[in-house]
Amino acid sequence: MNKSIYIMALGAFGIITTEFGVIGILPALVKEFHISVDTAGWLLSGFALTVALAGPFTNMLTAKMNRKIIMCLVLAIFVISNLLSAIAPNFTVLMIARIIPAFLHPVFWAVAMTAASKQAGPKDAPKAIAIVMGGLSIATVLGVPLTTYVADLFSWRASFVLSALINLFAFAALAIFVPSMPVTEKQANPKSQLQILSSVQLWIRLLTSTMILAGMFATYGYLAEYLDKVSKMSGVQISIMLLIFGGTGILGNWLTGIALSKNIQLTSRVFLIALAIMHLLAYQLGGFFIPMVTILSVWGFIHTGGFLVANLQVINGVRGPKLDFVNSLLPSFFNAGITLGTLLGGFVIAHYGVHEVIWMTVFLLLISFSLSFVKIKESRKKPAKSTEPVELDFVQ
């Protein structure tokens, strides 16, 4: 694979470390600024909400910018944001420093995904996207624990400095080694990009992705609680299990990319069924330590590939400048799915107990599986006075 793809994966690692790295230092921030835990939680939820709302608009505004320049700009803003966070004198300044880069977060993802797929070519596009998505997987496995460790070793401010350094390193690599990527398509304008929103099939695929993420996080969002209450694991054991879960997920993400290169539709359906089966096994054997360790290892292996499955089943067949726009929609729908899943999972836990949350995940995954069979034949009418091709066909 082109080295540029790995550099973009490094940028993804820096961005996700910035987004989720705050999770491990929330207790320290509560003490530092004398705020409640739910208020501190807005550092994460506020970031995610901004990403969800801003994605399509920020991408349209930057549609004509050189792809290398916009990615460098995003990473530079993330560097500045982390440095401002490190010296924040109060919670308000910290919140502002966190929200600013969230506006451009989806732009980096949209551009990186599109650039990676174009550089690799149609055949190897899933593998290339899997590499970039690997930056997300590694950030959740290593980035978050690393920033938490640095905060414990020095202070919470040091964790933001570390995130700044990671993004700075990615910025330098991108600026030095990645070639210029000018936008050459004549159609790269908001009106042309918005054309694809007339595709009913696209909306079905976006809904499917939302349900996939909701299903993944309905239980995963409360996994530590599940291991505590159902599996009766200690805090140390839970930490080790989560590390194993994420570690096998890195391998799973890579192999899922290879499988998707061969058949996107079949791989997506196998993924959904396999993930549902692992949840059912966890429901039946969650109270037994050794079986649960094995289940978690396989569960993590399957789970992380879900981000890639949800991504590729949407963009499959979308070409040209519209691909940037569709990719920019994905963070919004991914965040919506995560929010929906955690809300529904929390509802089940509150009313029926944490053990029963498994059934909500299975239900949502089955909805996603059913939606994968829905096919809508698209209209291919062209505007009367337009020479632009209408690219609304979807390759199966």
Offer a concise description of the structure.
By secondary structure, the protein is an all-alpha fold. Helices cover 77% and strands 0% of the residues.
How is the topology of this model organized?
Blueprint lengths: L2 H18 L5 H8 L3 H4 L1 H20 L5 H20 L4 H12 L2 H16 L4 H29 L2 H22 L12 H5 L5 H21 L2 H7 L5 H28 L1 H22 L3 H15 L1 H11 L6 H31 L4 H15 L25
Helix pairs in contact: 1-7, 1-8, 1-9, 4-6, 4-7, 4-17, 5-6, 5-7, 5-9, 7-8, 7-17, 8-9, 8-13, 11-16, 11-17, 11-18, 13-14, 13-15, 13-16, 14-15, 14-16, 14-18, 16-17, 17-18
How would you describe what is shown here?
It is a single chain. This protein is an all-alpha fold and 396 residues long. The chain folds into two domains: 1-179, MFS general substrate transporter like domains (Growth Hormone, Chain: A); 188-374, MFS general substrate transporter like domains (Growth Hormone, Chain: A), CATH 1.20.1250.20. The chain has 18 helices and no strands. Helix 4 (42-61) packs antiparallel against helix 17. The two termini are 25 Å apart. The relative contact order is 0.14.
Helix/strand/pairing class, anyone? mainly alpha
Going by CATH, the architecture of the largest domain would be Up-down Bundle
Helix content: over 70%
Q: Topology as H/E string?
A: HHHHHHHHHHHHHHHHHH
How confident is the prediction overall: mean pLDDT? 82
Largest sheet: none
CATH topology of the largest domain: Growth Hormone, Chain: A
Poorly predicted spans: 383-396
Distance between the termini: 25 Å
- Give Rg in angstroms: 21 Å
Number of strands: 0
Name the CATH class of the largest domain.
Mainly Alpha
Distinct helical segment count: 18
In quaternary terms, these chains amount to: single chain
Strand content: under 5%
